[in-house]
Design a protein that fits this description.
alpha/beta; Rossmann fold; 2 domains; binds 6-O-phosphono-beta-D-fructofuranose
Length: about 325
């Protein structure tokens, strides 16, 4: 692959607030550095169908504040097959695209890793997911906004939980990671978080009851990370109904509202920095890395590390929540 003159940009997988800020940053930074930019629509699917359009600076005006992604997004089955990726590569060549910037989560960066390996295409990833589950970066684009959305919801649930003296299980997203549940619980002043990272070690409901989480309170809020490992909020509500019938239990599943909304200042700044760094990385000849942030410094994380290693949950956070919920 010779000099890079034109980059393609796409968003893939679940959308996340701040993806638009990232699209804007990548586009403007590329143009600033003399590169041509092409927007690829509907994730990898757009590479297969040829839904590709040249982006000028004005194409990304007035989007930094918008949730979702102007490029649309998809989870593309065809791209998981060698035949599909061959079509994607052929279309890329036809469009004159020399390198790709992929904004997405675990699945999207896995696709990029395989594609880059098969066709010797420079691919740069940006961590775009509310789940914060990519290794090698302190945080991901969309995570902070989703946390704030959770806070807003839990603050409201607390009003009714207190009035009725109820126990609420609030289910939050995160796929197989408990970052939203744990940090959401700390920030919302919830009594506990049930997270997949420790679900196999202890029965978290037993722990809660045993620790007398309700001794000094008449209402309680427990955040539950969605995941087959935890079993979700409904599972715990059913268990409480059967095993501890004294509690008046309710469930709220926050669902996709966690993925929407205008990005916070934190996510806009993060997306802007990572987007500009993606172009720096391309200009430096980097390839097949995710751009991350570590102790406020930009870092390059090889795809294999970002997607393979399970990002650990800090034990300290678990202890903070436990101590402060007495
Ligand atoms: O990865 C982001 C995420 O929102 C996860 O938290 C959730 O499990 C999943 O996507 C939901 O995906 P979909 O929008 O396809 O239902």
């Amino acid at each position: 692959m010779g000099t890079i003159k034109c980059i393609g940009i796409l968003t893939s997988g679940g959308d996340a607030p701040g993806m638009n800020a990232a699209i804007r940053a990548v586009t403007r930074s590329a143009i600033y550095n003399g590169l041509q930019v092409k927007g690829i629509y509907r994730g990898y699917k757009g590479l297969l169908t040829g839904e590709i359009k040249e982006f000028k600076s004005q194409n990304v005006s007035n989007i930094i504040q918008l949730g979702g992604t102007i490029l649309k997004t998809a989870r593309c089955k065809e791209f998981t097959t060698p035949e599909g990726r061959q079509i994607a590569y052929d279309n890329m060549k036809k469009e004159g695209i020399d390198a790709l910037v992929i904004i997405g989560g675990d699945g999207s960066l896995t696709g990029a890793r395989i594609f880059a390996q098969e066709f010797d295409v420079p691919c740069i990833g940006l961590p775009g997911t509310i789940d914060n589950d990519l290794f090698g970066t302190d945080t991901t684009i969309g995570y902070d906004t989703a946390l704030n959305t959770i806070l807003d919801a839990v603050d409201k649930i607390r009003d009714t939980a207190t009035s009725h003296e109820r126990l609420f299980f609030v289910e939050v997203m995160g796929r197989d990671a408990g970052f939203l549940a744990l940090n959401g619980a700390i920030a919302a002043g919830a009594e506990a978080a049930i997270i997949p990272e420790i679900s196999t070690e202890v029965d978290q409901l037993e722990e809660l009851i045993k620790n007398g989480f309700r001794k000094s309170k008449n209402s309680s809020i427990v955040l539950v990370a969605e995941s087959p490992i935890t079993g979700g909020a409904m599972h715990y509500a059913e268990r409480v109904k059967n095993e501890y019938p004294g509690y008046d239990v309710r469930v709220t599943i926050l669902g996709h509202l966690q993925r929407g909304g205008s990005p916070t200042a934190h996510d806009r700044i993060l997306a802007s920095r990572l987007g500009a760094a993606a172009i720096d990385a391309i200009m430096e000849g980097q390839r097949n890395v995710m751009i991350g942030i570590d102790h406020d410094e930009i870092v390059y994380v090889p795809f294999t590390k970002a997607i393979k290693n399970d990002k650990p949950i800090k034990k300290e956070l678990i202890n903070v929540l436990r101590e402060l919920s007495i």
